[in-house]
Each structure stands twice: as structure tokens, then as C-alpha cells.
Specification:
Blueprint (H helix, E strand, L loop, with lengths): L3 E11 L5 E3 L4 E3 L3 E5 L6 H8 L7 E6 L2 E2 L5 H11 E4 L11 H8 L9 H10 L15 H13 L5 E5 L7 H18 L2 E6 L10 E4 L10
Parallel strand pairs: 4-9, 4-10, 7-8, 8-9
Antiparallel strand pairs: 1-2, 1-3, 1-5, 5-6
Helix pairs in contact: 5-6
Length: 221
């Protein structure tokens, strides 16, 4: 039986007195993929930050694994992300003075589970960046950085993977590779996968799509 990992209801976010965006209700089960597709200005990154508990909405409910995440304290939400939610950002954020491996080692400190070096290196090998483990991150290509982001997000077998424009900076070949890798990692872990993007190239790879329209008119398909 599929298990509802994420469910939202009546999410709205007010940016100012004159701009409030309402979002369609979302439901995603374990091992299911969902694409949130929309142009610039429809609040895609805002929605992703709400889904991950980084940003509190003006109104509405986000249930993760059966619990309203905004009933949790900020510290509890931080721990939830560290243990159960993998985030992949449009522009990978790493500490440039550290190697690729050291960045991944650092990221494991935010969760409660202990992840040993052999597990991290095996994941890097699977994503074809194992040979870059001792390289400083500022020497990596855009595609390698995105693979490193996927590795960081997948450490600890999260229940939910959230990807914000994971292909926008990549050419067609790298974009296809990254989507395939995301789906492969998702299938191996049984996680739910939500991709937020304006990149139409992703659409054919994901079964379920919700269109995010202008701030005044949201439709789901």
C-alpha cells in the first residue's frame, strides 16, 4: 500500500499587501514522482521552501508523514529535514575550501543518524564522482556539482527528495543524466520525489504534473 508522505491543504503565502499566492493542494506517496511546473514569478521556490518547512506559509497545512510540520518547533523542523528530507537546490551551495567528500561528511552532521565514510564514497561512486572525492568543489563542473548535490540529498535515505530547478543550468545531456539519476536514487530508496522547475525538458520524464500558473489562477493537471 502506498504511504502518503506529503499532503498540503489550502497553502497561501502573502509577499506584500498586494501580492498573495495560493498553491494547489499536493499529495505525494512514497516512491511517487511529482513535477511542479511553472514560469518565473509563480512562487516555485517559495512553495519548495514551504514544503520543506524552511518557510512558514501565511495559511494552510503541510502534513509530512502524518504530522503537520508547522506544529513543530524550528529546531524540530531542522532535525526533520536533516533526517527525512533531501534538498537539491538550483545553485549548489558547498564550502569551497573543503573537498567534495568533506562537504558530504559535514552535511551528515545535521541529521541524527551516523553515516560512515564507506557509505558516502559508495554513493559518490554510484553517481560517478567517486574519483573527485578529494577535489575541492570549486574545481568541479556544473554537472559534477549537481551530482554532488544529489549525493548530499540522498545520504541517510530520506523519505522525500525536493529538487529546485535541478536541470536549469545544464545542457540536454547533463539534464537527462541528472533526472535519470534522481529517479534511480528515488527508486532505490523508496522516497517520494518532487521537482520544482520551469524546464519543459523534465516533463516527459515524470508521470504526474501540477501546473503552477499566475498568482491569481492555479490549475492542476
Amino acid at each position: 500500500m502506498p504511504h502518503h508522505i506529503l499532503h498540503t491543504q489550502d497553502i497561501r503565502h502573502r509577499y506584500s499587501q498586494t501580492l498573495e499566492i495560493s498553491f494547489p493542494d499536493i499529495q505525494v506517496d512514497s516512491a511517487q514522482s511529482l513535477l511542479l511546473l511553472g514560469k518565473s514569478g509563480v512562487g516555485k521556490t517559495t512553495l519548495l521552501h514551504i514544503l520543506s518547512g524552511i518557510l512558514s506559509p501565511t495559511q494552510g497545512k503541510v502534513e509530512f508523514d502524518g504530522h503537520n510540520i508547522f506544529d513543530l518547533t524550528t529546531t524540530q523542523r531542522d532535525r526533520l529535514r536533516g533526517d527525512s528530507i533531501g534538498l537539491i537546490f538550483q545553485q549548489p551551495h558547498f564550502i569551497t575550501s573543503l573537498t567534495a567528500l568533506e562537504n558530504l561528511q559535514l552535511s551528515t552532521s545535521f541529521g541524527t543518524s551516523q553515516i560512515d565514510n564507506s557509505t558516502i564514497i559508495a554513493l559518490m561512486d554510484k553517481l560517478q564522482i567517486g574519483e573527485k572525492q578529494h577535489s575541492k568543489v570549486n574545481t568541479l563542473s556544473q554537472g559534477q556539482l549537481q551530482r554532488l548535490s544529489i549525493a548530499r540529498a540522498c545520504l541517510g535515505n530520506p523519505k522525500l527528495l525536493l529538487a529546485d530547478e535541478p536541470t536549469s543550468a545544464l545542457d540536454d545531456d547533463n539534464a537527462t543524466t541528472v533526472i535519470n539519476l534522481l529517479q534511480e536514487m528515488q527508486q532505490q530508496s523508496g522516497a517520494a520525489l518532487i521537482i520544482v522547475t520551469h524546464d519543459q525538458r523534465v516533463r516527459s520524464a515524470i508521470d504526474h504534473t501540477i501546473l503552477l500558473d499566475t498568482p491569481h489562477d492555479h490549475n492542476s493537471v
